[in-house]
TrEMBL record:
This is 1,2-phenylacetyl-CoA epoxidase subunit PaaD. It comes from the Bacteria. Residues 130-170 form the PaaD zinc beta ribbon domain. It holds the Pfam family Zn_ribbon_PaaD. It comes from Microbacterium invictum. InterPro entries: Fe-S_Maturation_MIP18 (IPR052339), FSCA_dom_sf (IPR034904), MIP18-like (IPR002744), PaaD-like (IPR011883), Zn_ribbon_PaaD (IPR056572). Residues 25-78 form the MIP18 family-like domain.
Length: 172
């Protein structure tokens, strides 16, 4: 293992595993219970000595959180010992909710946001949503209040059983 000298002495040089873990642990600024790994927007991590390149796919091309995520990834990796950090964005292939981890979907539910159901891979006519389960009480007796919720990638729903409003990640 290569070592580098810092003010505190000698420490191991950062490696690919450290880079992947560190980048993956960066929180989504819009839904802080999710990491970028949970969301599935962390596409690739490559290490060359003390330099790291991270590739991200935003949830949609106009996502306002991209700059904050990029800055947080750079900060986290710099703190982890990487001297040079390059964060690249790619829009192809387009992000899909199918890339979200099951752990991330469980975190969404616990946070009060209905997770996507994984139908993004369906081709052809747009599937009809028969019901979105309330993340609080689990009933399917819910209704869409607004196609846009707290962010453009979520819709606002209301539970007709417990009366609570909640966001639902749109399937794309």
């Amino acid at each position: 293992m290569v070592s580098v000298r810092d003010a505190a002495g000698i420490r191991p040089a950062p490696d690919l595993e450290t880079a992947r873990r560190t980048a993956g642990e960066v929180a989504d600024p819009e839904v802080p219970v999710l990491t970028i790994a949970d969301l599935g927007i962390l596409r690739d991590v490559a290490v060359d000595g003390d330099a790291v390149t991270v590739t991200l796919t935003p949830t949609y091309s106009g996502c306002p959180a991209v700059d904050a995520i990029r800055d947080d990834v750079v900060l986290a990796l710099t703190r982890a010992g990487f001297a040079r950090v390059d964060v690249r964005l790619t829009l192809a292939p387009a992000w899909t909710t199918d890339w979200m981890s099951e752990d991330g979907k469980a975190k969404l539910r616990a946070y009060g946001i209905a997770p996507p159901t994984g139908r993004a891979a369906v081709r052809g006519p747009i599937p009809v949503t028969l019901g979105v389960a309330c993340p609080r009480c689990g009933t399917l007796r819910t209704r869409e209040v607004s196609r846009f919720g707290s962010t453009a990638c979520k819709a606002l729903y209301e539970c007709q059983e417990c009366g609570e409003p909640f966001d639902h990640f749109k399937v794309h």
